[in-house]
């Protein structure tokens, strides 16, 4: 049975209960499209004018101008600039559920701001009728996400057709109801932001602890050292490749990947997030073919897995748990195991550290979809104590703090889950 839109939300503020259905408009009726940067090479990025990166659009519902990248723009170049109310969209992702992510300019920029070439913008005809604060929620609502995911094209990587996108229809209430919905959801976002600040403080505490437990610039021993290891001598600065076995996943054909849960689970980059492996009906995929030749790609408990591309490359790192053993490692995911010279928990701390994220940013100079190669991971330099027992002691100390950080992360996820449920009720939905 086909789905259709119900144009009245399940939960409505009393002032608008008698207002009838929301209007339904094609996105092309809301505004005009604006393209991102053209004619740029990697050498143009790093200095110059501000531009909104792909990562900013993917990660945030509103644009923070302080986090923009830099690009050289000549005076005679004909490049589009952004303005208040512009709605920015990603055009490509490794899953249809992450195509068409949106971010809004809710404030007027104080300088010329440009847009990366892997996104485009919708410039509303009238900001009063398509209000920026409302747009940030409309274009993250379930009804929009369902519609835009359905038009994603591809197999291993999905793209968004601008023509198909502009033909999508979205529900729009009157300006007063837009304001009320935006005010409600933004209040909840403020609570989430407050809890996120607490999480950031915990992460800062861990960062400070790591600065004391690991040698800093110009030093070969840490500032603080457990007493039993004070006489063990200097640490070694080496490429992490000396202490690990790294293996990349297999490139399966599109027709070999399916939704049939009777198949063997596939571990994709989209499954890996910050500190854990996530699962849902929308993102989980399976393999039904012959397994004999794929055994070398099965992951084991305590394997470290790293998503090698995407907006959070360098952050999406996790340990494989018992429940994910024997999942098939797919391309663009790295599997890391510690060798006999290293403790896997100690190695894991390196890959979830700010230092690794900084390193990834330094080797990833592309203005497009961020990525890192297997060789670049191997080249990452880290300090190692000569005694594996010292590695284990440090890892145990940091893992205890990780548990507190995980608990706070779960609180934030609960709030986000509540917000998700609220958005399902405040916006019209697809019905059978």
From TrEMBL:
Chain ranges of the Type I restriction modification DNA specificity domain: 21-201, 235-416
Q: Name one GO molecular function term.
A: DNA binding
For this protein, the record's InterPro entries field holds:
Restrct_endonuc_typeI_TRD, Restrct_endonuc_typeI_TRD_sf, Type-I_RS_S_subunit
Q: Which GO terms describe its biological process?
A: DNA restriction-modification system
Keywords recorded for this protein, A-Z: DNA-binding, Endonuclease, Hydrolase, Nuclease, Restriction system
Q: Which domain of life is it from?
A: Bacteria
Q: Which residues form a coiled coil?
A: none
**PANTHER family xrefs:** TYPE I RESTRICTION ENZYME MJAVIII SPECIFICITY SUBUNIT (PTHR30408:SF12), TYPE-1 RESTRICTION ENZYME ECOKI SPECIFICITY PROTEIN (PTHR30408)
* UniProt similarity note: Belongs to the type-I restriction system S methylase family.
Full protein name: Restriction endonuclease subunit S
């Amino acid at each position: 049975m086909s789905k259709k839109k119900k144009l009245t939300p399940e939960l409505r503020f009393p002032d608008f209960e008698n207002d009838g259905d929301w209007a339904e408009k094609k996105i092309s009726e809301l505004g005009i499209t604006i393209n991102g940067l053209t004619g740029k090479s990697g050498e143009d990025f790093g200095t110059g004018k501000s531009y909104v990166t792909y990562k900013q659009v993917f990660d945030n519902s509103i644009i923070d101008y302080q986090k923009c990248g830099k690009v050289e723009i000549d005076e005679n170049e004909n490049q589009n600039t952004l303005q208040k109310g512009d709605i920015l969209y990603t055009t490509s992702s490794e899953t249809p559920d992450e195509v068409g992510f949106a971010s809004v300019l809710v404030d007027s920029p104080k300088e010329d701001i440009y847009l990366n070439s892997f996104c485009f913008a919708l410039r509303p005809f009238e900001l009063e009728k398509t209000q920026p604060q409302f747009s940030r929620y409309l274009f993250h609502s379930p009804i929009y996400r369902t519609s835009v995911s359905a038009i994603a094209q591809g197999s291993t990587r999905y793209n968004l057709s601008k023509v198909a996108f502009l033909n999508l229809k979205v529900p729009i209430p009157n300006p007063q109801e837009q304001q009320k919905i935006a005010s409600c959801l933004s209040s909840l976002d403020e609570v989430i932001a407050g809890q996120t600040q607490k999480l950031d403080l915990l992460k800062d505490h861990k960062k400070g602890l790591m600065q004391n437990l690991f040698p800093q610039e110009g030093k070969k021993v840490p500032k603080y050292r457990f007493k039993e290891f004070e006489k063990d001598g200097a640490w070694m600065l080496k490429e992490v490749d000396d202490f690990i076995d790294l293996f990349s996943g297999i490139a399966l054909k599109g027709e070999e990947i399916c939704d049939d849960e009777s198949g063997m689970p596939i571990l994709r980059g989209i499954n890996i997030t910050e500190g854990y492996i996530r699962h849902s009906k929308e993102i989980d995929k399976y393999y039904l073919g012959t397994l004999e030749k794929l055994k070398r790609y099965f992951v084991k408990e305590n394997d470290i897995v790293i998503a090698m591309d995407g907006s959070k490359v360098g952050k999406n790192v996790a340990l494989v748990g018992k429940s994910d053993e024997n999942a098939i490692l797919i391309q663009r995911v790295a599997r890391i195991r510690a060798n006999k010279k290293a403790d896997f928990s100690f190695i894991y701390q390196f890959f979830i550290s700010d230092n690794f994220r900084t390193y990834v940013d330094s080797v990833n100079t592309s203005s497009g979809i961020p990525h890192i190669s297997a060789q670049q991971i191997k080249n990452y330099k880290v300090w190692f104590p000569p005694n594996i027992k010292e590695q284990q002691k440090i890892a145990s100390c940091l893992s205890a703090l990780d548990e507190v950080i995980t608990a706070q992360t779960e609180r934030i996820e609960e709030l986000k889950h509540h917000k998700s449920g609220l958005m399902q009720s405040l916006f019209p939905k697809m019905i059978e």
